[in-house]
Specification:
With 77 residues, the protein is an alpha+beta fold. The chain is built from three helices and four strands; from the N terminus they run E-E-E-H-H-E-H.
């Protein structure tokens, strides 16, 4: 599967919720909610790659896998 952020080939990690979890060699591991995925497809949005990577890195400092919700996704395009 391709990374939602940078389109690099990435590994999909099994998830137990309404999100897709990817492990990208460029962006790292993150989760994207089902609603955010639907919005990106509906509006043909693209992430701002550098800004999104910075946000992901800041979220990882707490030791958790970042979740990009639909509200957060709107701020990262």
């Amino acid at each position: 599967m391709k990374c939602f952020i940078c389109s690099t080939e990435s590994n999909e990690v099994p998830s137990a919720g309404d999100y897709t979890q990817l492990d990208c060699p460029q962006c790292g591991e993150y989760r994207l909610s089902g609603t955010a995925i639907a919005l990106f497809k509906e509006h043909n949005w693209k992430f701002n790659v550098e800004f999104t990577r910075l946000w992901l890195e800041s979220q990882r400092s707490g030791g958790t896998i970042p979740l990009i919700t639909s509200d957060r996704a709107k701020t990262l395009i």
